[in-house]
Amino acid sequence: MGVDLGDLFEKKEITLSDLKGKAIAIDAYNTLYQFLSIIRQRDGTPLVDSHGEITSHLSGFLYRTTNLVEEGIKPVFVFDGVPPEFKITTIEERQKIRTEAMVKWEEAKAAGDEDAFRFAQASSHIKGTMIDDAKQLLWSMGMPVVQAPSEGEAQAAFMVRKGDAYAVGSQDYDALLFGSLVVVRNLAVSGKRKLPGKGIYVDVKPELIEFEKGLFGLEITKEQLVDIALLVGTDYNEGIKGIGPKKALKLIKKHGHIEGVLKELGTDIKYLAEIRDLFLNPDATPDYEMKWKKPDPDAIVRFLCTEHDFSEERVSKAVERLLAASEKGQQTLDRWF
Fold first, then answer.
1. 259: Cβ contacts below 8 Å, ≥ 6 apart
2. What is the torsional sign of CA 172, 176, 177, 180?
3. Over 50: is that where the pLDDT of 336 sits?
């Protein structure tokens, strides 16, 4: 879910053509959850194969990745590793929420309630071989896959700072806390989002956030940004009740650091030093490969159609598009060498 810093950073609306030729380190877990949430039938039921295994995420990775490659973008997918120990409580709480949502979804679905889809989205969770299946598909499509030692966004931010990627692609703002110079949100060819509690859909456009420009505009340091996030609440702490991004910014500017704010409020934050260190000194590895390869059509069709019952006609069309886009991209690169 990440920390909510949307009210603080300026978001520049862009088109995917603005990212042509650029490598984007995509938060794979974040993206996978998107697919599990939105690719469902009207009653909230996810796509499944004849074995009852969910395939919504595979459909999402196939078509969205193909769309991005056609736009000239070079996606690299970064997967989470072992979470920090102090994130376990958050994981357990999320699991409880998803279990409760699952019960509500089943009840709403049986009653024909229009809220069934919303409850189904809230029940989305990663299980079984979903991660391994996603990696296998991406490898078959010729996409680089990077395994982070811990948090995927920390690894992706490291790759941007190193200059191997232009931006982190994620819906969350956590990559800014990990120091990514650029973050791209809404990384899709087109999309719509339903406004909470309303039957209204709005167009969602890709948007770009620049880290250093944002800090300059707010007149704060990276360390102070992390302190603001800790006050608001992150994946690792609940935050202080009643404090949003703007109020947190005001308090940090008043005191200079979070310790002064906590003293004024007469409260504390569990694992404060550990969480702050996680953001300021994230665990990342330089041992990764970013090489885009030619897609393997036979492997893609075999995996999706033979093993997971996808339509061979639809998959073959997507593969043809992917091959054409990959060859075009390689020809463009060859001109430089």
1. none
2. positive
3. no
